[in-house]
Amino acid sequence: MTISASQNNPVGVGIVLRFGVWLLVFSISANLLLLAMPIYLSQIYDRVLPSDGLDTLLYLTLLILFCIGLFSIFEILRRTVAQKLSVHYELRTKSALLEHGVKNREIDRTRLASLLNDVTTVRQFLSGRGLFSIFDLPFVPIFLAILFFVHPWIGAVASLGALILLFLALGNELMASRHQHNTSRLYQQSTAKSSEILRHLDDVCAMGMGKAQLNRWQRTIVDAVYSSNELSAVNGVFFGLVRFARQAIQIMILGCSAYLVMSEHLSAGLIFASSIISGRALMPIEQFVGSYKQLTAASVANNRLKHWFNGTQDASNMPAPLTLPEIKGYLRSDNVSLVPPGATSDKALLRGISFEVEPGEVIAIVGSSGAGKSTLMRVLASVIRPSMGKVSIDGFELEQWDPEQLGAEIGYAGQESDFFHGTVAENIARFNPDASDEAIVNAALNAGAHEFIGSLPQGYNTNLDTVSFNLSGGQKQRINLARAFFGDPQILLLDEPDAHLDKEGERALVAAIANARARGKTVLFVTQRMHLVNSANKVLIVDNGMVVKFGPREALMAPRDTNRKTEAIEDKSSQKTLENTDH
């Protein structure tokens, strides 16, 4: 497995080389110091014992203790370097993945979550013993060469043993690769299904889908566990064979060395020295086979990451957008169409939508359910990109704006009131560390959320992790609106902001929209309620992904006999409206 180090890889060539060089240096030093013990034993048997040299024994013992101490230091150092490499890899790669996900809103979020898990898999391998076995493998031929120098027979036996271990490792690769890919795929599917169940837990419980969804997940996880057991069985068999082979080879080397001593072709001290060196020569192969499951999992994960980063090459090579002048709020949609991936043009969600909005205008977007209103709002908010056409603000397409600058000037409130882990204040402030208390409170006041926030256990400092379950739909929507109003954005994009509000909340929302209009803000909102439509000065009627009518509210909301088609669409929308109120 290799860590890709192209211009698309966040780890980079420099970091990989820097850590890799130090790992190699410490691995060389540690492996060379392992020769100290066999040299010590050979000297004890061949020099110290025959001569009763106590001084020689003392100096040799002190020297070997020093070498063992150095060996321990180098082992600590290379473990530290491996840990730092894994940390750098995880931080930079996950940051690059999340940054790309933020900049490319239409990314497959399930796949992105899977890629983040892949980064963790690679990181665990980089910080484990499996990486060390790779760095130790190049020393196998060196130790074998030393054994040949001791005696060709010993070298031949050790080399034969190394070949047997290598063939076993190759067999492990051939037998385990299929199971590894299948296991990884099944576990990803089971994780996706379990996340889906938890994400829609209310619907699962309310509609009695628990058993069906649980069975659906269990079928996948059982297949994954079965495949994992098969993989573990294969790896276990080969690991056992490798361990048996290594010990058998060491016994053969001891026997061969004893025979050579008896035939006076070898000194007695080299019996144990040869055994230790042969053990060290074969150990990396055994460790490699033992960590093979982790290695293959990391390799598969890294290949997926490498493929993904290579696929983002065009986007990464694009120049960064410039910081443009302050947004004024001129919004233009020019022939915008959106076709879902893999679908044909007749299945388009949006079809050639064109309109213009000037600062100070308030646009009510109405239409039947499924007409494309929410999809249009997501396109305008740069959450998804259109398949054709373009959306521009102040004459510049959305892609030409710096995402941070554009995001700060857009107040977007989607239909779902999703919050991040943190306090009410942090969520309203969009987690801006420089947000002032005054700006947070003003946003809550505009959304009509200030009073009910005061009734929470810790007010604005209440952690939403603990109370969000007890908040009503209207309360959640008010916090969502407060987040949209935070920072006094120039453009407000509100998707059914009144869906869960009571009369008091509606009045606060209408007042906030009127205030925004008076201050020259650009406001677009989706609604099914005619009460909120009256706060707009223009109406955009959407049906089947197309603009049916766009113009002044007074003209489009004329009496029935002068505009039957418009009213028919509104009636169809009104039939689907539910009056949800705060609890």
Account of the protein in words:
With 583 residues, the chain is an alpha/beta fold. It has helices at residues 13-33, 36-51, 54-103, 109-126, 129-136, 140-150, 152-199, 201-206, 210-262, 269-290, 292-311, 313-317, 373-380, 403-408, 424-428, 437-446, 450-454, 464-467, 473-485, 503-518, 530-533, 553-556, 564-574, and strands at 331-338, 350-357, 362-366, 388-393, 396-397, 410-413, 491-495, 522-526, 538-543, 546-552. A six-stranded mixed beta sheet has the order 6-7-8-3-9-10, with helices on both faces. Strands 2-1-4-5 form a four-stranded antiparallel beta sheet, with helices on one face. Helix 16 (437-446) crosses helix 19 (473-485). It is elongated and about 115 Å long. The model is unreliable at 1-7 and 560-583 (pLDDT under 50).
